[in-house]
Design a protein that fits this description.
3 helices; mainly alpha; rod-shaped; 203 residues; Methane Monooxygenase Hydroxylase, Chain G, domain 1
């Protein structure tokens, strides 16, 4: 047999659940866009708090359903109370259905948001890994370029030294050639001079 119920208590519980759902929806809508920007530990805490609150709403709805099941117009002491209980039962059925639907939507929204965050984090990690790999390659290429520049600078220096040696050798060779030409010129001059002098003496 159904036990007497406190109508005011049921209405109060219904109002509290509706207010709680509205508060959670408002909080969730505010935080949904900022969750990604929060640090990992704080974000996980916020998600756990939201999940805990929605679980609490689900529990309260279960209690409300129990109260609803205890509403029996046949247990009323008067016809007006019976009608009141019947109307309250119909109102509670609609409210419970609406609140259950809203709660399920909230839970689904929280889960979807969490999944989106996880997906974005995985994408960011993958992008970060690719970026780090590219930075390592760029660093390696810069090292290779630096080594090649050092090698090129060394070869340029060696080439410059070789050119300077060749210039020095060329100068030495030109000097020797000049000296030899001068000696030959002196010899020829002396030869012609003494040849002419000898010819004059013979005449």
């Amino acid at each position: 047999m159904s036990q007497p119920v406190n109508i005011n208590e049921i209405k109060k519980l219904e109002t509290q659940i509706q207010d709680l759902i509205g508060s959670v929806k408002h909080t969730f809508n505010q935080k949904a866009t900022t969750l990604m920007a929060l640090p990992l530990s704080q974000r996980d805490k916020e998600m756990k708090d939201l999940t805990k609150t929605t679980n609490g709403i689900t529990s309260l709805l279960s209690y409300l359903k129990i109260y609803r099941n205890n509403l029996s117009p046949s247990s009323a002491s008067s016809v007006s109370q019976s009608q009141q209980l019947s109307q309250l039962g119909s109102s509670l059925d609609a409210s419970i259905q609406d609140m259950t639907s809203e709660t399920n939507s909230l839970i689904k929204g929280i889960q979807n948001t969490y999944q989106k965050i996880q997906t974005l984090e995985n994408e960011l990690k993958a992008t970060g890994g690719d970026l780090e790999l590219k930075m390592q390659r760029q660093h390696q290429q810069q090292n290779d370029i630096g080594n090649k520049q050092k090698l090129l600078s060394s070869r340029e220096r060696m080439l410059q030294l070789s050119i300077e040696k060749n210039v020095y050798k060329r100068k030495v060779i030109y000097t020797y050639i000049s000296i030899v030409c001068l000696i030959l010129l002196l010899l020829f001059s002396a030869y012609f001079y003494y040849s002419k002098k000898g010819t004059r003496m013979n005449n």
